[in-house]
Amino acid sequence: MSGPLDARGALVSREGLTRRGLALEYTTLGWNVVGVVVLAVAALSARSVAVAGFGLDSLIEIGASTVVVWELTGADEGRRQRALRLIAAAFALLALYLLVQGVLVLATRHHAGHSPLGIAWTGATAVAMFLLATGKARTGRALENPVLITEGRVTLVDGILATAVLVGLVLNAALGWWWADPAAGFVLVYYATRECVAIVRHEEP
What pLDDT is stored for residue 135 in this prediction? Predict the structure, then answer.
């Protein structure tokens, strides 16, 4: 028979899930704050547009995670809608960055130097972001929180982008294929744009 104990158990469970969601976001924030510094050093040493661009993506991820922390610590419908709009804007910025960077690199035929630090960091970031994205998706579904679910997709894009940058850096170092990274980035332009459009359509009355 359901009763007050069931309601209290559900409340405790929800509080636990909220704490888990916050822990995932704080972990993402910490990782990307460190990443901005590491990627700046790697980009300057290798004069790599791709590595510098991935640092910008880390800044976007920091912004998206901050939005989710803001929403989870005081959720209401108005705040939730504003949070979703901000995440949609982050997706739009990411798509724009990828498009502009890819076109510039291909047009200028920019050949970056080798970046062992960039390879190591993007490899580690790919693994970390895929794990965090999985955790956010599961926690968001359990909480029925569209903001956490949506930001989990931002983290997934971050992981895919890290993989694309990693492949580009490795191919550049091993085979001299300087164009591999911008080419991979164009795939993500479609993905990020699709997510942005999906959020906007979801909000339409």
Answer: 95
What is the pTM assigned to this prediction?
Answer: 0.77
pLDDT (tens digit per residue) in 129-178: 999 999 999 999 998 888 888 889 889 988 988 898 888 889 888 888 87
- 73-78 contacts, C-beta under 8 A, 24 or more apart: 73/22, 75/145
Domains of the chain: 4-203 (1.20.1510)
Q: Which residues contact 179 (CB under 8 A, 6 or more apart)?
A: 105, 106
DSSP secondary structure letters along 87-120: HHHHHHHHHHHHHHHHHHHHHHT------HHHHH
- CB-based burial of residue 5 (10 Å sphere; 0-12 exposed, 13-18 middle, 19+ buried)? exposed
Residue pLDDT, tens place only, 11-57: 548 888 889 999 999 999 999 999 999 999 988 888 777 787 788 77
Alpha carbon distance 39, 49 (integer Å): 11
SS3 at position 75? coil
CA nearest neighbour of 54 among 161, 182, 152:
161
